[in-house]
Every structure is written in structure tokens, then in C-alpha cells.
Design brief:
Shape of chain A: globular
Number of strands of chain A: 26
CATH architecture of the largest domain in chain A: 3-Layer(bba) Sandwich
Domain Pyridine nucleotide-disulphide oxidoreductase dimerisation (chains A, B): 344-446
Oligomer: homodimer
Radius of gyration of chain A: 24 Å
Helix content of chain A: 25-40%
Distance between the termini of chain A: 70 Å
Strand order of the largest sheet of chain A: 4-3-2-8-19
Family (chains A, B): Belongs to the class-III pyridine nucleotide-disulfide oxidoreductase family.
CATH superfamily of the largest domain in chain A: FAD/NAD(P)-binding domain
Protein name (chains A, B): Flavoprotein oxidoreductase
CATH class of the largest domain in chain A: Alpha Beta
Domain FAD/NAD(P)-binding (chains A, B): 12-304
CATH topology of the largest domain in chain A: FAD/NAD(P)-binding domain
Strand content of chain A: 25-35%
Keywords (chains A, B): FAD, Flavoprotein, Oxidoreductase, Redox-active center
Number of helices of chain A: 12
Chain lengths: 464, 464
């Protein structure tokens, strides 16, 4: 084990994790301070830097033709910007008192301590894989990394059978189900919840359910997977629940991720109720002046519920990195929190949510009214107008907007941004009824569906 | 002349104008109060009620197959809701002191006075038609009413020539140019401004110019029409500017509208600098407790500039009607103002704006920074990602958002709603950089184009 040091007066920024949050932080810090002022060393244990995990389902489904399209910036590109990115190098310990990290070559096994003046923890997430028989059998896949995606594609290419089971019906589960349909598989989705797409309330998830059935996907709700059955060759052959068995040549797990915070925990850094690192508004780890954390390993403040939440999304990771890099580079920026916006699609059905679902609002003690309206994507008389369903939650008495869910065809998903901004500004649904939104027959009815929902919510709040 | 009266204790609400604002007001008032409490009499001088003027270009272009699709509610449907809608009946005088209006049958010429307890003025707009030789010749058309649209369609069907000239390159001019291309005409657009689409700054209008040329439209900028030349048959044969003549078998004027406020002016009601009625926040005509006005005959407060503005758009007219009907029905609602949002399209190029253009900001004394960025509609690696240009204006020092213009393909237009809500909430561009907008590869790059613009604007404001 060696000890690197001797930096000739330059500060050293060490980054753990070479993906969205870590490399955004490194890049932004580099923009703020040149290599003569700040040395930047980044460690990534995998084979790839700065890739779009959100793009994996589209690569697996064939919409994105090749893996490398998902890589936003290669290690060489980072190095060309004077970022010393060390691939296949894992950090195995953070010594906070000594201001150093221990790094180990994944292939070589060589270890060394690297000291830091400033540290960024961007260790990401690890997929949840239930501890059950057969969970590691050949034919069972996750889709967290590009390596996972490649392994799945190889498996799809070599499997003779055509039956796939997806476990989980959140964003990844639903997107993977569609991807597997595109690859010519018969797909069954086994889901613990009452309806697919648990980021929505079940009444809205029901609309997604119908669309999935329309694609030929078999949807099994209210079902907990108990074990994976394997054949004599050791490969997976079925997924078992308490009630049934679903034959499977391929199984894909998409039941979510947890913050990868084992290193942080061992170092005594503060973790929240969801296991993620806790930071302040400048993305500094609480109580630590020179340590920042961001991306899928941190918890974020939900501005609507007022509580910390775990929201592992690339869009937040990029913003965290930007904020961390500005601060670590001697500037100033903050990440105030999220409102819980997410969008997805199944075939041409667009799915969007922001703010709180009914159960979120109950959990934090809010009383509220809900409305659900049907409208159209364009003026009713304009060709291509398609139905759109908008659900809206508003606080009782105050009328403050609490959440919006939208399911529909073209133009449904990004309409949720109207509500995302309104939530950030803490608008009431009555204030929303006066919003000056874009109107022309090809783009909206004269009352935008979000305004129709806001009007109905206003009437309901007023009536109580 | 007769005098109607004797209402058995019921109040009478009189509405002048049977289109969006007037009939929305009547409908909402009826929802609030039944016919035993409130009598509603509405006068419309034309042949149609509650039609979508915004839809006329799409009807003329053939996207909307028939006229009646543009009628939201027929006179019979209004009457079935106990609204006494009198078609082809013109109000010729408002007697404010006597609380009565004089109505005249357009066809019969019969006149009578009708008294009111509450009055709604929704007289709409009249198209600007320059006072020049040939302006009334056969073959010269406007597109304000359904009758105008029908006359134009008849003219298109019977004209042997295939050359059309559109005068004006605002929303209507550009939409009509495309409609005429769809009908197989060679189209020249003669435009007074430097670039088409004057609701945008010229640098953004330039992008629309290119798209119009791509459709085969001949665009003539910086050109003022001086006269229309007619042939021996009296029909229009060319449009003349100072420099040139443009042969024309059909001429369509789309150079905007003015508030139709002759009645209001004669009655001594308050008008603003743009000739529109001035109202308070409840849409009451200033100084008049029992008179409301809304739609294309009023001026509205621009919440960004702090000044009254004339914005004749159906979306505002419907909101005005809603607010007026609530108040006239004994409830309470307000219309706080507009931020100047508008969207349109030329072929598949979407065009959007909100807030102030550079010249608007100059006019009201604001100092500002501008940025223009290029991004894409979807993640760069996702199929169908197309370029999008976003221009953003932010106030110097404070960084307050002042305006956004967007030109691009799918998803460009309604993205402006993000900025419309942010303007309403008086956000700074730096606050906007933290907005939790929907992200998934089919819908947006990981940094939404609006966020990219906000980041660049933030950097520019900070640097000054």
C-alpha cells in the first residue's frame, strides 16, 4: 500500500463514483478552477463513466441501437479535461479524520490511500434483489448498469424460449416489459401492488394496466414472488408466487434500488430513514464542511411533504453534481429539493406524476380533496385529439396544490411540468385556474386539461 | 319601438355578444343561479354562437372537415339552458344612466329597448382592414368569423388562379399561409416586419421564416402594402407595395384585430390606450358596479410589464367569461392578468412565446440579459430527438425571468408553459435551474432545454 501526496500547494478534490452526480461535480469544479489550482481525482469501480441508466430499457428494446450512445462522456474525454478518472478502482474506506480514502484496483487488487482536501461521495444505488432461492440463477437479470444491460441482451440472444417474467411494475419494470415485447418475448409482469405503476395512485395505475394488456403483456397484481425455480441445467425456469408459477426463460428484476451507502455508514456519516446520506442545501454532508454527496446515494427534501425522501433519478443526480461542483470549486449554489416529478411511457401511453399521491398526503397528515377529469390533448375538433386523464390533489381549506397525475397520449407527460412549477411556487388550485398557458387547437383545448382539473378542484375545495 | 320589462322580481342579466366571453359568462351565471332567480338575455348580431375563431385556419386548410365542428355550443343548446339568446340582433346603444340597451333585428330592422340589472359587454374585435384602394374587391378576404371562413372557402373553390397573397405574418397570417398551401395555392406572404411572427424577437422569427420557405411559401419582409390592384372584372389581381407587385387571385388579410368598442365609447365607458375597455380584477368595467366586460373588447394587465395590453385570444375570453359569470351570478372570482403566452405552428415547426420580447422590455424600462440555447426535444440518443431553440430574457441584477421564446419540433410549444408558470410566480432564472421537471429519454434530455437556458441565463446575470 502506498500513500500519494505532495501536491505542490494545489487542493485535491476526490470524487467517489464516476457516473452522473460524481462526474457532473468533477466537470463543474473543473470549469470553476483550473488544474493549477485544483487537482481532481475520481474513482469508478465499473467499466463506464457518465452513462444514462435511464436509457437502458430503450437500448434493450432496440430503440437505441448501441450501448455507446448511452455514454455521455468517456473516461478519455474526462481525462482530456484534466480530471484524473481512475476506472475499475473501488474506494473501500473513507477515513474522515485522516481526510483520505483507500482505493483498490478491482482487477489488480492493489490498494493505496489517497488524501483529499475536498471529498464528493457519489456512490449511487444498488438494485434490490430479494434474498430468495434462485435469485442468482442464470437467466435472472437486473438492469442497473451497462454491464447488466449487455448481459441481458446476450441472454435474450441465446435463450431459445420466448417467455419473460418481469418482477416489479414501477418505471423500470414497465419499461422493461415493453422492451421485451419489442424483442419478441411473451411477457408477464408480477407486481406486489394493486395496480402497476405504484408511483401513481391505483385508480390511475389502472389506466396503465389497460395499456399494458393492450400491448399483450400479462399483468399479475397483488402477487409477491416467493422463489425462482431452476431447471436441471441450473437456469431459471419459472417464477413462483404463493398462488402460482409463471414459466420463465428470462427473469428481469425491476423492483427498485437502495442507496449504496455502506462506505458512508462505515465512516460514520449521517444517514436518513431511507438509508441515504443526509446533506444540507449546498449538498454538503451534514456536519462535514469538506464532504459533499449527491445522486442516488442521498436523500432529498420533498418540498411538498416537508420530509426527506429517496428519489433515485438521473435528473436530480445531474443537478446535485452541478451544485456540488460549484461549491467545491469555490462558488455557491444550492439544491432546494424536489417536488416528486417523474414521467414515463408504455407504448404511446404517457404517464406523469408530481407532488404527493393520496397515500403520501395521508402519511404526512394532510387533509385533501381529489378530483379526476377527462379532457383531450388537442382541441376536440382538431385531428389527432386523444383522451387525457388528470388527477389533482389539493389541500382542504387552503386549496394548496398537493399533487398531479396525468395519463394520456401525446402531450400528457410533459404537461405535468405545469404542476411541478406550481408546486414549487406553492400555488393554490384557484391561482392555477388563472394560469396563462399556451393555447392553439393543435396543442390544447381552449381550457388546458390541467386548468380543467384546477377548476374542478377549486370548486371542491370551496364547497367544503 | 317597444320596451320589455315586468320581470316578476327576477334580476335580468343582459349579454352583448354571443361568442366565447359572452356565452361563457351567461353559462356560468346560469350555473350559479337558476331561471327563477336570474333571467339571461344575450344578443348576437351574427349567425353563430360560441365558435372557435382559432380553428378557422385549420378548417380552411382542410384539417377540420366541416364548419360545425368549430361551434362549441349552438343557439339551441344555449336556449335549452334557459339563456334567451337572440341571434341576428345587434345592440346599437347602451344607455348606462337608464340601465337599458337598444337592440335591433339585423334583418327586420325592428328596434326595442331592453332594460338590465346587470350587463356584460363582450363585443369582441373587428379585423384591421387598411383603408386603401381595392381593399373591398372580390377575392379579398378576412378570417375573423365563420362567415368569413365560408366566403374564403367558396372563393378558393371558384377561383381558377392558384396564386394567393397573405398580408401579415402574425399567428393568423402564418396559419393561413399554411392552410392555403394545403389547398394547393402558391402562397406569398407580405409582411411589414423584419421577419415573420412578430410576437417573437426577429432572431427567433428568422427560424419561422426558414420553415415557411421550406413549405414553399414566398416570404416578403420589410414590405408595406400600399394598394390592391383589380382587374377589369373588378376582382383583385395583385397586391402592390412601394417596390413591387405580387399577382394574386386571392388575398387574405391577417394583420390583426382591434377591440370592437364603438358602443362602449358612445356610452362613455372607460377605454385604454389600445382602445379596449378597462376593467378591474373582477372584470367589472371601472367605475360601474353592474357592468362587466371581457374577451376581445377589453385590455388586460400584463403581469410582467405591469402595463395594460391588448391580447385578443380565445383562452383569455373563456377565462373572462368564467369570472364574469361567477361574479354576475353572485359569487366571487378574479382574473389577475396575463403573462403573454401564445403558441402556434407552421407545418411541424412549433412556435411559442411568453412574457416580454426584447422590445417590450425596453419599452417598460427594464434592463435585461438574453441567452439563446440549442438543445433537443428528447435525449440525444433517443430516436426522433429534434433540435429546439430556447431564448430567455432575465432582468439584470435581480435575475427575474422576463420572457421565453421557443422554436422547435414536437414538444417545443407546450414547454413554454413551464416559463408561463414561472413568470406568474415571479421566479428568478436561478430558481428555475432547480425546477423538478419531468425527465425520461423519450421526453427530454436529462437537462430540459428550459433548464439549460435558465442555467446559461443565471451565469450571465451573475457575471454582470
Amino acid at each position: 500500500m502506498s500513500m500519494s501526496g505532495g501536491r505542490g500547494g494545489r487542493e485535491r478534490l476526490v470524487v467517489i463514483g464516476g457516473d452522473a452526480a460524481g462526474m457532473s461535480a468533477a466537470s463543474q469544479a473543473r470549469r470553476m478552477r483550473g488544474p493549477d489550482e485544483l487537482e481532481i481525482v475520481a474513482f469508478e469501480r465499473g467499466h463506464f463513466s457518465s452513462f444514462s441508466a435511464c436509457g437502458i430499457p430503450y437500448w434493450v428494446g432496440g430503440d437505441v441501437p448501441e450501448r455507446d450512445r448511452l455514454i455521455a462522456r468517456t473516461p478519455e474525454e474526462h481525462r482530456a479535461r484534466d480530471i484524473d478518472l481512475r476506472m475499475r478502482t473501488e474506494v473501500t474506506e473513507i477515513d474522515v479524520a485522516g481526510a483520505r480514502v483507500r482505493a483498490r484496483g478491482v482487477d489488480s487488487g492493489d490498494e493505496s490511500w489517497v488524501s483529499y482536501d475536498k471529498l464528493v461521495i457519489a456512490t449511487g444505488a444498488r438494485p434490490i434483489r430479494p434474498d430468495m432461492p434462485g435469485a442468482d440463477a442464470p437467466g435472472v437479470h437486473g438492469v442497473q448498469t451497462l454491464d447488466d444491460g449487455q448481459a441481458l441482451l446476450d441472454s435474450l440472444a441465446h435463450t431459445r424460449g420466448r417467455r419473460a417474467v418481469v418482477v416489479g411494475a414501477g418505471y423500470i419494470g414497465v419499461e422493461m416489459a415493453e422492451a421485451l415485447i419489442h424483442r419478441g418475448f411473451q411477457v408477464t409482469v408480477v407486481n406486489r401492488g394493486k395496480e402497476p405503476m405504484s408511483p401513481l395512485d391505483p385508480d390511475m395505475g389502472r389506466l396503465v394496466h389497460r395499456a399494458m394488456e393492450g400491448l399483450g403483456i400479462t399483468m399479475v397484481n397483488d402477487a409477491e414472488v416467493t422463489k425462482l425455480l431452476t431447471g436441471q441445467d441450473g437456469r431459471v425456469r419459472a417464477v413462483a408466487t404463493e398462488d402460482a408459477e409463471y414459466p420463465a426463460d428470462i427473469v428481469v428484476f425491476g423492483i427498485g434500488v437502495r442507496p449504496e451507502t455502506a462506505l458512508a455508514r462505515a465512516a460514520g456519516l449521517p444517514l436518513g430513514a431511507h438509508g441515504g446520506l443526509l446533506t444540507d442545501l449546498a449538498m454538503r454532508v451534514r456536519g462535514h464542511e469538506n464532504i459533499w454527496a449527491g445522486g442516488d446515494c442521498v436523500e432529498v427534501l420533498n418540498l411538498v411533504s416537508g420530509q426527506e425522501q429517496y428519489v433515485p433519478l438521473g435528473t436530480h443526480a445531474n443537478k446535485h453534481g452541478q451544485v456540488i461542483g460549484s461549491n467545491a470549486g469555490g462558488g455557491y449554489a444550492t439544491f432546494p429539493g424536489v417536488v416528486g416529478t417523474a414521467v414515463s411511457k408504455v407504448c404511446d401511453l404517457e404517464i406523469a406524476r408530481t407532488g404527493l399521491r393520496e397515500k403520501d398526503a395521508h402519511r404526512v397528515g394532510l387533509q385533501f380533496e381529489t378530483v379526476t377529469i377527462e379532457s383531450t390533448s388537442r382541441a376536440g375538433y382538431y385531428p389527432g385529439a386523444s383522451p387525457m386523464t388528470v388527477k389533482m390533489l389539493a389541500e382542504r381549506r387552503t386549496g394548496r396544490l398537493l399533487g398531479v397525475q396525468i395519463v394520456g397520449r401525446e402531450g400528457a407527460a410533459k404537461r405535468v411540468d405545469i404542476a411541478a412549477v406550481a408546486l414549487t411556487a406553492q400555488m393554490t388550485v384557484e391561482q392555477m385556474t388563472a394560469l396563462d398557458l399556451g393555447y392553439a387547437p393543435p396543442f390544447s383545448p381552449v381550457w388546458d386539461p390541467v386548468l380543467v382539473a384546477a377548476r374542478k378542484a377549486t370548486a371542491k375545495v370551496r364547497a367544503r
